[in-house]
Amino acid sequence: MANVKKKKPPHSQDIPKREVDVYFDTFAKQFQHPLNRVLQYVGLPIFWFAVIGLVWMIPFPEIGFLKEHGYDTFLNWGSFFIAGMIYYYLRLATTLSYAVLLTIGLFSFFIVKLEHLEQAGGPAAWVVCAVLLLASLLVLYLGKRMEKHPVPFRIFLQLLTLGPIWLWHFVFRKFNIPY
Questions:
Q1: pLDDT at 10
Q2: Sign of CA dihedral 85, 114, 134, 32
Q3: In a 10 Å sphere around its CB, with 0-12 CB exposed, 13-18 middle and 19+ buried, how is residue 111 labelled?
Q4: pLDDT below 50 — which residues of the chain?
Q5: Cα separation, 120 vs 160, whole angstroms
Q6: Residue 66 confidence (pLDDT)
Q7: 13 in any annotated domain
Q8: Most exposed among 58, 77, 168, 172, judged by the fewest C-beta atoms under 10 Å?
Q9: How far is CA 28 from CA 10, 37, 128, 142, in A?
């Protein structure tokens, strides 16, 4: 028989990491303090709720046929922002982007509730979102300062940008769901 060499299975070092995994590895190295992790688990969803809420509140041009059918509540600048955000996440990790989309659906429900509360005489929705945004940024920044080694500002901004899929990746890993 001819001397046939068997191919060795590739080692994990031989397989290039996906871009999203590189980000997650960077976050794991930079953000190790246990209390900071807890602050991130709380602060990142509040941050994103507030950001989406503020973008949602930017006045959108009135379009007659949408208003006639009652769809004007759901088409706004937030819709375009959400679409861009999900598209970006979809390119990084498809399943994680679906989980974030479900989260955004929940956020949207509460943003609309804030609008209804405002119409009933409650505080302005944009004020609530602005306060939440500032509070969450403060909490996340203070958490960043807890780390043993200084976290570069660029990594902190990446955390803010990729926070939703980063948080969901912990859930997916816990239940062995590929992303």
A1: 54
A2: negative
A3: buried
A4: none
A5: 33
A6: 74
A7: no
A8: 58
A9: 25, 10, 31, 17
Which residue range is the domain that position 114 belongs to? 25-174
Whether 42 is in a domain gets the answer yes
CA 173 to CA 99: how far, in whole Å?
13
Q: What is the pLDDT of residue 76?
A: 83
Residues with Cβ within 8 Å of residue 93, at least 6 apart in sequence:
18, 20, 165, 169, 179
Structurally, how many domains does the chain consist of?
1
| pTM: predicted TM-score of the whole model, two decimal places | 0.84
Q: Is residue 20 part of a domain?
A: no
Pair 114, 125: CB distance under 8 Å: yes
Dist CA 151 CA 21 (whole Å): 19
Residue 62 identity: E
- pLDDT of the residue at 6: 56
Distance of alpha carbon 179 from alpha carbon 173, whole angstroms: 9
Place of tokens 């930079």: 30
Domain assignment of residue 105, yes or no:
yes
Alpha helical stretches, state H, the chain: 19-30, 34-57, 64-68, 77-92, 94-119, 125-145, 153-174
DSSP 54: H
